[in-house]
Amino acid sequence: MNALLKNIVRTWTNNLEGLYKPASLYPLVALRIAFGFTMAAWGVLMILTGRVSEVFSRQVMHFPYEGLEWMRPLPFWGMIMVFLLISVSALMLAAGWFFRIAASTFTLLFAYVSFIDKASYLSYYYLVMLLAVMLIFSPAHRLFSIDLIRKPTLRVDFAPRWLLLVFKVQVIMVFFFAGMAKLNSDWLYSGIPVSLWLQDIAAQAGFNSAIIANNGWLAISLSWLLVIFDFILPHFLLDPKTSTRAFWAVVMVQILGMILLPTGIFPLLIVLSCTIFLPAEKIHRVASGVSYFLYDVFQFKADVFKPGGSYMLAYRYKRLFPIIAMLFLSAQVMLPVGMYLKMGSIQWADTAFHFSWDVRINHHKNSVAFYKVDRKTGSSEPIAIDQYLTPIQQQRLAEDPIMVKSFIHQLKSKPELRISQDALEIEALSCTSVNGRQADCITYTDETLSLLGNSGYE
Fold first, then answer.
1. Are 417 and 372 in contact (CB under 8 A)?
2. Which of 89, 344, 387, 396 could form a disulfide with 105 if both were Cys (CB 3.0 to 4.6 A apart)?
3. Residues 135, 106: contact at Cβ < 8 Å?
4. Residue 10 pLDDT > 80
5. Which of 89, 82, 91 is nearest to 120 (CA)?
């Protein structure tokens, strides 16, 4: 018994000591560069494609989060400046130029854009903000960055292994929770919503979608493959022998996802996040070519860009930082897992999973209509909501009863509707169909809305 305990203690001690062994900083540098350039491109595209105007400037009504009612969109040119600053700070983050200031500025501006309106939030914003916050407190700028020109003593070539592991675990959570959300009877036994998606794609391509509907095994097989992919892939990413091939597997799957099921920049975000798993020597080989070029052309003093250094990062409180990182990651696991066990897969994916990652889990068809009702006669008149809401807001409205309540309260304040009369009220009819089932419709009246409690939006 004593020998067994000694072996357990010895193994545990060795594992802890292994967390402090040096690991190359190049994978973190690659993540910094890929993340910065991607988010800079996102900010520019939001402006050039007119999304800034569509999502923010054309809104007549807004749906703030509880406690954030003070956050409002700026005028059109103000929002343009916000997205330009997001792009500039992201470029500075990628280049490692005034890194912590740039990373903090990007994080604050991106959080402002994310939480300014409940209807404009996309769930992959959560991963962007997590990575941005983690980069702020990381040494990602202490190798292959412009900051080294200002202060060559910043250079660090190696960091404790636990630091890289924190970023890897954060990325693995994306796959883990995506797999968890698929653990339901629709995915595993009916092949839904995959079957519905394949039928839509086939119809758009001009093929007979009935072939897919009549061969359910195809959708079920693909559903199981996607679940296995989410749970098994992290093992191959963590193994240095298979990490490169696993990375290219991620690339191929995400390219396929972008073609079949467009989900914004999420596939690209996943690919760039997985650069943290690439072997350091391969990243070093690419960086060395660039470094030698910069070193020869600009003749920087000391060894600012010269590859092959051996500096090791030393944390002053080397026992405290891993504990903080462990608590940070543990909270991200325990809270959503607890809610998953309480809600079940489908409800969790539609509510708690909102603050997670933009992985398409269920197939939704939503609609909502509003009516001005005369209590005395029972007659009703439809309200044209296009003048008040953008298409994106209308889509989100059908999914959230609290937003319906908020919208009705805002409509009542519109003088053109003249709802101040006691005989008139506003009712809403919201219908939602999940995974091809018959739509569930709910009529919202003053009485049913009062049961929702205080929305915090009035």
1. yes
2. 89
3. no
4. no
5. 82
**Of the candidates 110, 107, 46, 112, the residue with the CA atom closest to the CA atom of residue 80:** 46
Res. 107 pLDDT band, cuts 50 70 90? very high
Q: How confident is the model at residue 189 (pLDDT cuts 50, 70, 90)?
A: confident
pLDDT for res 277:
95
Q: How far apart are CA 383 and CA 387, in angstroms?
A: 10
Instruction: Report yes or no: 143 and 157 within 8 Å, Cβ to Cβ.
Output: yes
pLDDT value at residue 93: 96
Using CA atoms, how far apart are residues 330 and 80, in angstroms rounded to an integer? 37
Mean pLDDT within 174-180: 85
434: helix, strand or coil? strand
Residue pair 155/110 in contact by the 8 Å Cβ criterion? no
Distance from C-alpha of 247 to C-alpha of 271, rounded to nearest angstrom: 8
Query: 387 to each of 61, 300, 383, 424, how far by Cα in Å?
Result: 10, 59, 10, 21
Q: Are 403 and 395 in contact (CB under 8 A)?
A: no
| 455 CA to centre of own chain | 25
What are the phi and psi torsion angles at 429 (to 5°)?
-115, 110
Amino acid (one-letter) located at 173: M
Total residue length of the chain: 458
- CA 194 → CA 78, 398, 427, distances in Å? 41, 23, 35
Answer yes or no: are the C-beta atoms of 73 and 89 closer than 8 Å.
Answer: no
- Which 8-state DSSP code applies to residue 312? B
Sequence letter at residue 248:
W
- Strand, helix or coil at 153? helix
Query: What is the pTM assigned to this prediction?
Result: 0.84
Residues facing 429 on adjacent strands = 369, 443
- Read off the DSSP letter of residue 356: S
Distance CA 259, CA 396 (A): 24
pLDDT for the residue 262: 63
Alpha helices in 20-120 (DSSP H): 26-48, 51-52, 76-95, 99-115
* Angle formed by the axes of helices 125-136 and 99-115, nearest 10°: 160
Instruction: Tell me the two tokens of residue 124.
Output: 């992959």
* Per-residue H/E/C for 223-266: HHHHHHHHHHHHHHHHCCCCHHHHHHHHHHHHHHHHHHCCCCCH
Residue among 17, 12, 35, 30 nearest 243 (CA): 30
Asked whether 457 and 406 are in contact (CB, 8 A), the reply is: yes
Domain boundaries defined on the chain? 23-155, 160-278+315-362, 364-450
